[in-house]
Structure formats: structure tokens, C-alpha cells
Amino acid sequence: MNLCTDLTVSYGGKAVLERFSLSVPGRGITLLRGPSGCGKTTLLRTLAGLEPPRGGHLALDPRETALLFQEDRLLPWRTARQQLADVLPRPRWEEIPALLEQVELTGAEDLFPSQLSGGMGRRLALARCLALPARLYLLDEPFAGVDSSRAARILERLAQLPAPVLLVSHESETAARAARIVELDGPPLSIL
Amino acid sequence: MTPSTMGFREPLKNLLQRLPAPAFWLGVWQLSAFLVDQRLEGRGNELLLPYPATVLASLTSLAGEAVFWESVAASLLRVLAGLAAGYCLGAALAALTCWSAWCDRLLSPAIRVVRAAPVASFILLVLLWTGRDTVPAVIAALMVLPVVWDSLSQGIRAADPKLLELGRAYRFSRGKLLTLLYLPSLRPYLLSALTTGTGLAWKSGVAAEVLCLPLPALGTQIYQTKYYLEIPDLFAWTAVTVALSLILERLLRCGARRWARGWPA
């Protein structure tokens, strides 16, 4: 699946992406790996429509993507169940237990973000992202603060999703389960 | 200790903690009235500073008359109407001025003028434009509006940009943006505007009643006590106004808290 062609994005005159193109397999996990600050997060944000490209072409409508931000960005005044119900259409509310189970948060339905540990908050943010209907999932550091055995199990489930997953991660375990690994350098972002 | 005893002790402890301050000021009032009484050698200290007991007797006597309750109800309705109108208009203007820089440039100076203008000028002007019965509500609304506008504008601008970006990325509707992001973020500002606005609505509303003399009204009663030099009655009507303001503020804050349960403090 082609994601972008000749994409150019710059901040304050400095190019972060310069004529960058990327394709991913139609299913499974594609891992983006590269040094901090090379432009991985900017690429995900651009694909999600949050950064306007100066040039190039996005193959997928950003409204068909779901982005997991680098931070959890949970609403402090909503319980875990409510966070998922907020993004799901009402007829799909019965999927909430399955979504929580997918990230191993069963039993945390009525907890507020302040009552969750760092890893639990991250997993709830991931579940909320997966609740969005999307043709491409963009996950920025989904396992920050999550223990490695649990991260491995969740990763197995992510690999079974019907839509492709583009994932930024520094954890070495992630590479073992990725269908494709893209080594990056930059800025401007380039495939090694 | 049984749970029922604990349940009884907690409110008692709260009451004992709150009691000393009012008791102290009541003591100051009693002592001051006594000193005035000594100075005037019993020749009418009630014209300057009556004793608390005299005011209480006056209040009890007033509460037995139908006009007392009619005045309380009429003033309460006027102030509530003004408060509601001022709150709604202030909130709408805050949303408008935050949404559009052009609206901000156009409306903000006018709202600041309303905030700075003397309330007496407005009372007289509104009296000329409308009937005397509507002046207190209009004035209360005009005094509350800038406070609500200012507080909510600050709140809207302080909403977390990361959460707003989340709303955009997760395709929240306008209704969801309002109910899930803006209103919870605005909670402290809404409560602050409610507290300040309620006090202002009572002050300005009763001041308008004193100048316009609608019937029945607390302000009209206050004016008449001045006219007939019934100072204990003046104190009694003032106490009623203060009590009503505090009760209304407390009720509104309780209502707002209940509505916003689960939102951040």
C-alpha cells in the first residue's frame, strides 16, 4: 500500500521531510526505526493530517487513519470505558470489553486516568486508537512504559488487524514481529 | 466508635470550626453598639448602630408580614433572571470573541466599557428606556456579563491544545468538542464566574431597586427604611439580602458541582 509520494514538510524553514516516499504491506506491522529527532513523529503526524505538507502527495485520506500520539492524551475526566465510547459510534459500544481485553485492561473499565499506572494509561490510549475505524493505524511509541512480555502479546494482536500498522518504536522486541522494518535517518528523513 | 456516631461527629466538628468567625464579628458588632449607646447616653443609638438583638427582633417582626415574602420572592426572581441572562450572554460572547479575532476586536472594547461604567449611570439610562420593573434584572445582567465573559474567555484560551488536537485527529463533532473538552476544562472558570457573578447580581440588582422603586422589592424596602430612619429595619433588610445572596451562590455552586461530577477540580 502506497502511503505517500515525494512528501515535503518543514518547520521554520528547516526541511524535516524532503521528497519522502513510503509504501507498506497491505497487512501487518511496519516498524519505523531511526535516531531521535530524525522525523518519524512528523511523518506519522503528516499522514494523520496534523501537519500540512509543503509538497508531495498523500495516498490515503488522513480521515481514514488513526493516530496514537506520542503522549497518552487521555481525558482526565473520563473513565476507561468512556474514553472508548467517546470515539466509537453507539452501535459499536458492545466492542468496548473486547478492545480493553486486546490491550489487557479488562477490569479497568471504571477507572479514571489518574488511577492508572503509566503502562496502563499507554495501553488505554492504544485501545482508544484501535477503536477508531481506519485503513491505516499510526502508532507512535505504543509500548513506552509497558512491560516487554505484555508488549509482545499485544504486538501479536496488532499483527492480526485487518488494516496495516505503521509503528515507531525503540524497543528491540518489536522488530521480531514486524512484517517490514524501515531504517531511517535524518533530518530530512530518509530510508537507509 | 460506630459509623453512625462518626457520621454525627463530622458535621459537628465542621460546625465548631466555622462558628468562631461569625461569633467574633457578632461580638464586635455588640461591643460597638454598646460603645455607641454609652456615647449617646441612651439617646437613640438605634439611629446609628442598633444592637444585634434589636435587628433580630426587627427581622422577626418583618418576617411575619406578607410584604416581606413578596419582596424576597420578587427580588429573587429579578436577580435570577438577570444572572441567567448575564451568564448566557457572557458565555456566548466569550465563545464568539475567542472564535473570531474580528468579533474580538469589535466586541471586547464595548464589554470593557460596560465593565468600567458606573452602575448608577446605567440604572438611570435603563430606567429611561424601559419600565422600572425590568431595570433591576437588566442591570444585574449587565454587571454579570463582563465578569462571565472575562472568566470564560480566559478558560477557553487555557484549554489544553494537545487535547484539542486529539479531538481534531479523532474526528470529534462540535458537540463532543464542547461537552468532552471545553466544558470540563472550563469548570474552574465557570465556578469562579458563578461566585463573583451571583454577588454582583445581588448588589447591582438591589441598588437598581433602591433607585427605581419597583413594587414589591427588597431595594424599595431598603429605600423606605432610609426615608423613615428605621435603621434596625435597614439592617434587617440588608441581612436578608446578604443571606439570599449567599444561599443562592451556594445552591448554584452545588448544582454546578453535581452537573460537573468527575470533572477536574
Element order of chain A: H for helix, E for strand:
EEEHEEHHHEHEHEE
Strand content of chain B: under 5%
End-to-end CA span of chain A: 20 Å
What structural class is derived from the secondary structure elements of chain B? Answer: mainly alpha
What is the domain tally of chain B?
Answer: 1
CATH topology of chain B: MetI-like fold
Strand line-up across the major sheet of chain A: 5-6-7-3-8-9
CATH class of chain B: Mainly Alpha
The low-confidence parts of chain B are: none
- The topology string of helices and strands of chain B comes to HHHHHHHHHHH
Reported for the largest beta sheet of chain A, the result is: 6 strands, mixed
Oligomer: heterodimer
Which secondary-structure class do the elements of chain A indicate? Answer: alpha/beta
| Average predicted local confidence, pLDDT of chain A | 91
What does this entry look like structurally?
The complex is a heterodimer of chains A (192) and B (265). By secondary structure, chain A is α/β, with parallel strands linked by helices. Chain A is built from 6 helices and 9 strands, in the order E-E-E-H-E-E-H-H-H-E-H-E-H-E-E. Chain A has a 6-stranded mixed sheet, with helices on both faces. Chain A has a 3-stranded antiparallel sheet with strand order 2-1-4, covered by helices on one side. Chain B is an all-alpha fold and 265 residues long. Chain B has one domain: MetI-like fold, CATH 1.10.3720.10. Chain B is built from 11 helices and no strands. Chain B has helices spanning 3-18, 20-40, 52-63, 66-99, 101-116, 119-129, 135-157, 161-169, 174-212, 218-227, 231-259. The longest helix of chain B has 39 residues, at 174-212. The two termini of chain B are 32 Å apart. Chain A binds chain B through residues 48-50, 63, 66-67, 69, 71, 73, 75-79, 86-87, 112, 128, 132, and chain B through 162-163, 165-166, 168-172, 176, 180-181, 184, 262-264.
